C-alpha cells in the first residue's frame, strides 16, 4: 500500500531510496536504483541495500521453532551421542533406535540446539528425521531457521537440498522472511544464492503487488 508523500520522503532520508523512487515514478526499473550518492546499485549490493534499509524486513520473525520447550535429559543425551558418533553404522543405528523415538518436543529441541551450535551435518540428519515424522507438516519458520543456519556457515549444497524440499512442499515465505533470508546469504558471503532466492521472491504470489511492480 502506498504511503503519504511526506512519510515516503522521511523514509528516504534514512536510506530507503526505493520508497522515494516510487513516490516520483510509480514503476521505474528496479535495477536502476541508486544509493545516497547517486551511484547505481547492482547485484548483491542492490540486494543488501534494499533489504537492510527496509524497516519492515528488519523485524524479527516469530518462529514456532524458537518457542522451544526446555531440553530434557533425553534430548541432552541424544545430542551428546550424535556428536560422539557423528557417522557410520553405529550412528545410523542410534538414529533409528533413539532419535526417531523421541517425543515431538524433544526432537524439535534437539534440532534447535544443533542449529544454534551451527552444526551443519548433524542438523541435516535431524532435519531429515523431523520431516519423516507423522506429525510433521510444512512450515515456513522451520525452513527459515534451517536456511539462516546454512547461510551463516556457507552450506551451499545443503541450502540447495533444503530449498528443493521446501519447493516440493509448496512452502511460501512472506515478504519479511524473504528479506531476512536474502540478507543472511548476502552477509554470509553467498551472493549468488542470495540472487537466486531474490528471484524466487520476485515471482512469489505472497509478495505484495507494490514490490512486484517495482521489481518488474
From TrEMBL:
PPR repeats lie at residues 174-208. This is Pentatricopeptide repeat-containing protein. Keywords: Repeat. It comes from the Eukaryota. InterPro entries: PPR_rpt (IPR002885), THA8L-like (IPR044795), TPR-like_helical_dom_sf (IPR011990).
